[in-house]
Specification:
With 316 residues, this protein is an alpha/beta fold. It has two domains: 36 residues; 225 residues, 2-enoyl-CoA Hydratase, Chain A, domain 1 (Alpha-Beta Complex). It contains eleven helices and nine strands. The strands form two sheets. It has a seven-stranded mixed β-sheet, sandwiched between helices. It has a two-stranded antiparallel ribbon with strand order 1-2.
């Protein structure tokens, strides 16, 4: 009898442990499901779990280690542009396949798939708006669209935006993130480097401000053209910035490169960028720079006085 009670006690004890183990696995599954549903975000650098809502409130910058997570172009516009002041430009421009390029699949099929997946027509959004009340022309590249590659539409939209800014005498800001020129468009994509650079030169001749903001990553033909033509060049912390990839350079030189090679901090040290600005401070920094470089308008009475002075001098 005692043995039976003992065996029942052991059995119930085993059941208790089994149930506890089962409930533990269920809670683990529930936790994993909540993470998968996007309630929590695990930092890729420090592995700290952050409530997604808090992370978005901090502009997708990890509150623990300061890691800057990649954000899409729509989120960038919301972060920088004042509410209800954004006016998109050239939304109708669509990429084509003039070379009928094909690798593992048709370029036209790739375009259609990525457009349906992320809801963008191409890799840049351009428009006019205000930043803390100051007018601005803003271009924002989006890495989700074929690695932010620069094709004909990217070049055309940025060029038209710069020309609008020159005409309206607005400063230009471009948020750069790209793997470089789009190989599926061949020479047509490389031509965009010269086209955008020419538009920026006309903007500069009009004595107007241009600020590129280099984010992670900014490489290839974008770095070799408009990303490095700014009057003031800003970068986000730890952003990868360069032309050729690290592996290509190491294979060419047959040397191991330093750990901080092609980082924003290394470029700042060597004078290639002017400042590194955390994303949470970017809007205020841009506001200050734009306010400092606003064109100074000469008061009418000063113009009249200068004209009278010149006239009297000429008469003498």
């Amino acid at each position: 009898m005692a043995n039976n009670e003992e065996s029942r006690g052991l059995k119930s004890l085993f059941d208790w442990f089994a149930n506890r183990r089962k409930s533990g696995s269920t809670s683990l599954e529930r936790q994993e499901r909540e993470i998968a549903d996007g309630l929590w975000h695990k930092c890729s650098k420090c592995s700290v779990l952050t409530y997604t809502k808090d992370l978005k409130a901090n502009q997708m910058v990890c509150v623990e280690c300061g890691h800057h997570n990649r954000v899409d172009s729509d989120e960038r516009i919301r972060q920088l542009i004042d509410h209800n002041t954004w006016k998109p430009l050239d939304e109708h421009l669509r990429p084509t396949d003039p070379l009928e390029f094909r690798d593992r699949k048709l370029y036209s099929d790739r375009l259609r798939e990525i457009q349906e997946k992320i809801g963008l027509i191409d890799a840049v959004n351009t428009g006019l708006g205000q930043i803390n009340g100051l007018p601005i022309a803003l271009g924002v590249m989006d890495f989700r669209f074929m690695g932010g590659s620069m094709g004909s539409v990217v070049g055309e939209k940025l060029t038209r935006m710069i020309e609008q800014a020159t005409q309206r005498r607005y400063p230009v800001v471009i948020i750069c993130t790209s793997g470089g020129a789009r190989m599926q468009e061949g020479m047509l994509s490389l031509m965009q480097m010269a086209k955008i650079s020419a538009a920026l030169q006309r903007h500069k001749d009009a004595r107007l401000l241009y600020i590129p903001v280099l984010t992670n990553p900014t490489t290839g033909g974008v770095t070799a053209s408009f990303a490095m033509l700014g009057d003031i060049i800003l970068a986000e912390p730890k952003a990868t910035i360069g032309f050729a990839g690290r592996r290509v350079i190491e294979q060419t030189l047959r040397e191991k490169l330093p750990e901080n090679f092609q980082t924003a901090e290394d470029l700042l040290l060597h004078g290639f960028v002017d400042d590194i600005v955390p994303r949470t401070q970017l809007k205020n920094t841009l506001t200050q720079l734009i306010a400092l470089h606003q064109p100074v308008l000469t008061p009418p009475h000063m113009v009249l006085w200068e004209t009278m002075s010149l006239t009297s001098t000429a008469a003498e």
